[in-house]
Amino acid sequence: MAASVVPTAYRQGTTAAVPEWLNKGDNAWQMVSAALVGMQGMPGLVILYAGLVKKKWALNSAFMALYAFAAVMPCWILWAYKMSFGHRLLPFWGKAGLAASQDFLMPQAFLPSTQYKNITVAAQPLYSMAVMVFFQYAFAAVTVVLLAGSLLGRMSVKAWIIFVPLWTTFSYSVVAFSIWGGGFLFQWGIMDYSGGYVVHLASGAAGFTAAYWVGPRLQEDREEFPPNNLPLALAGAGILWMGWTGFNGGDPFAANIDSSLAVLNTHICAATSLLAWICWDIIIFKKPSVIGAIQGMITGLVCITPAAGLVQGWAALIMGIASGSIPWYTMTRLSNKLPLLQKVDDTLGVLHTHAVAGTLGGALTGLFAHPSLSSMFLPVPDSNGAFYSSRGGLQFLKQLVGAIFVIGWNVIVTSIILHIIKLITPLRMTEEELKIGDAAIHGEEAYALDGRGQNERSMQNNENNNDVEMHHPYV
User: Fold this and answer.
1) pLDDT at 120
2) pLDDT, position 20
3) To the nearest whole percent, how much of the chain has pLDDT over 90?
4) Residues 426 and 156: beta-carbon distance below 8 Å
5) Can you spell out the DSSP letters for 94-149?
6) Is residue 1 part of a domain?
7) Does one domain contain both 440 and 390?
8) N or C, which terminus of the chain has less Cβ within 10 Å?
């Protein structure tokens, strides 16, 4: 940074790093929240995926999540952050630009409420732009990792490598700007406290669409896909759950009362949803399921996300019951009745755990959002839940329209991206890779079986599968 552009506050010896405008408490909480959100993706979802899939897909599933988490960062710094939270280019998109520019350490003033007339400022972060860029990066990265859950067990690594930056640029940034960055849905008063739409509905809709175009797993994998390590999956689920403390608690952009409420509501809804899902499993299937408990936890976390700091505790309880029941029904019952849901191979059921739960949470936000809490979050008049306002029914309808936009945009853009990639490289793995799994794709396996080392195992696979080359320099 050239001396001529460094603010005076940074050139005063020992106090240079603590200018007057910086609030140390807010700054520390926001960095902790960003780290918690990041840990949801790496290692949380990485090891959750590795544990939930069939053994031969453990490494490839973890790799897809790991790659996506890393690949979003250069896109975010070079252009996507400003497209999501920069100056308006179109009603639904911001202007591309460098986030790592000379104003990187300046006071953060990105909030959309400062950019448009007839809207007053709701909050002003009292820390540098660097903190906000990292916090929002973690959200963008986790979104793409969640999307990967629909595609495990058959998408080509090369296709996935190309897909991640394109989807981040043309899908995530559009929805983020439209709802959070000052775009037309923000102006209209759509409420999405922490990503029920921007993260979860988007990843669920895009993942299901991508699963349609990439095609299903091998029939043998669809019929028999036992988790290879449930304790590992539980560890990943635990990191995901606790990481949600920062996911929702960081979105007031300050360490304040609203952040505390958001954290409490998050855990109320998650626990209630998990218990509701277990109850349904016991009632219908006569036994509780560990995988079911994980699904119920996730749907509860997703459902409360758009409402976390906007509703009271009793509403979080009701939302937990709903999120442990409606997605349970769509996943265990409706998916066996609708031809489209039977045809599309959504590996981990992201449509149900994220798209259905995210839409449900957004709709219930339109019912339960408290006026006092709403006014602290969104500086748009009459953005209150239907239970508290004579015009609240309009807010409920707005929430549904917002969900339709997110679904429609992701279906269209994801389809276009995949058709473009298909011109460059196949979307699916080869038949040999589909049959063998990790050893054919990466030259590595998750576990050494029967006391045999990796090299010996790879050599045997190589001999038994038409001399497919599986030697890897790291093995």
Assistant:
1) 42
2) 79
3) 73
4) yes
5) EPP--SSSTTTTSBP---GGGTSTT--------SBHHHHHHHHHHHHHHHHHHHHT
6) no
7) no
8) N
Check whether residue 181 and residue 306 sit in a common domain. Answer: yes
Instruction: From 193, 396, 180, 399, select the one nearest 309 (Cα to Cα).
Output: 193
The band of 455, judged by pLDDT with boundaries at 50, 70 and 90, is: very low
Confidence at 392, pLDDT banded by 50, 70, 90: low
CA of 292: how far to CAs of 267, 276, 277, 280, 320, in Å?
Answer: 18, 10, 7, 10, 15
Distance CA 247, CA 266 (A): 9
Distances (CA, A) of 117 to 110, 181, 229, 252, 399: 15, 15, 54, 22, 23
pLDDT tens for each residue of 225-234: 999 999 999 9
Domain enclosing residue 118, as ranges: 38-422
Q: What angle do helix axes 230-249 and 24-39 make, rounded to 10 degrees?
A: 150
Which H/E stretch holds residue 18?
A: none
Residue 239 and residue 138 in one domain: yes
Q: Is residue 475 in some structural domain?
A: no
Alpha-carbon distances, residue 204 vs 105, 135, 355, 358 (angstroms): 35, 22, 4, 9
| Token duo for residue 26 | 């807010």
Q: With contact defined as beta carbons under 8 Å apart, do 360 and 306 qualify?
A: no
Distance (Å, rounded) from C-alpha 444 to C-alpha 157? 15
pTM exceeds 0.70, yes or no: yes
For the chain, helix, strand, coil in percent to 5 are 65, 0, 30
Judgement on whether residues 365 and 453 belong to the same structural domain of the protein: no
Residues 216 and 83 in one domain: yes
Query: 154-196, pLDDT tens digit by residue?
Result: 999 999 999 999 999 999 999 999 999 989 999 998 999 999 9
- Name every residue whose Cβ is closer than 8 Å to that of residue 474 and which is 6 or more positions away in sequence: 443, 444
